[in-house]
Amino acid sequence: MPTAMSTDCSKPHSKYLLVVIDMQKDFVTGSLGTKEAVSIVESVVRKVQDHSGLLAYTLDTHDENYLQSREGMLLPVVHCIKGESGHELVDELKQPLQGALVFEKPTFASVALASWIASQQDLEEVELVGVCTDICVVSNALMIKAMRPELVIRVDAACCAGSTVRRHEAALETLRSCQIEVF
Questions:
Q1: Are 167 and 133 within 8 A, CB to CB?
Q2: Is the Cβ–Cβ distance between 140 and 133 less than 8 Å?
Q3: Vertex 129 angle, CA 140 and 14, to 5°
Q4: Would you say the C-alpha torsion 30, 34, 38, 40 has a positive or negative sign?
């Protein structure tokens, strides 16, 4: 469940939710960081600052036993361990996302985020940005779509980065195929 809310839901702009996916130090400059992830930070910050609706973000969250998990066995790179600096948002987003809804997730998609969105019948549009396009962005978009098939779901390709450029492009094509608006 979310841990904080920054916006008054009674205002008309509460019909639009911007979700920042996993913009954590380990995914940008840390153990799983890429130059593409670094390159979108400024655009994501600008997007958050310009957004007048609801804000939420996800945090990939693991414990010290990560390497013994199924994910850890298939991706044996320690990352986003709760309590360590790599779990934190990148510094540039800490202030702009202060007070936003927070969803910690132990896997690619957040069941809690999708469930919360499904319960918000006044929402008209959800936009996702962040990393990795081919793993967590696509997983969250598809889970939200499954739970709210009539909701407008958008992904800003310029504010996303994949684990590789090729996988980023493939994920965008998958999103389009599943009726997620990619712009």
A1: yes
A2: no
A3: 85
A4: negative
Does the pTM of the predicted model rise above 0.85?
A: yes
Three-class DSSP labels, the chain: CCCCCCCCCCCHHHHEEEEEECCEHHHHCCCCCCHHHHHHHHHHHHHHHHCCCEEEEEEECECCCHHHCHHHHHCCCCCCECCCHHHCECHHHHCCCCCCEEEEECCCCCHHHHHHHHHCCCCCEEEEEEECHHHHHHHHHHHHHHHCCCCEEEEEEEEEECCCHHHHHHHHHHHHHCCCEEC
pLDDT for the residue numbered 71 = 95
Q: Respond yes or no on whether the N-terminal peptide bond of residue 132 is cis (omega within 30° of 0).
A: yes
In the predicted model, residues of the chain with pLDDT beneath 70 are: 1-13
Separation CA 44–CA 48 (nearest Å)? 6
- Which pLDDT value is given to residue 2? 57
pLDDT at 8: 39
Tokens standing for residue 44: 């994501």
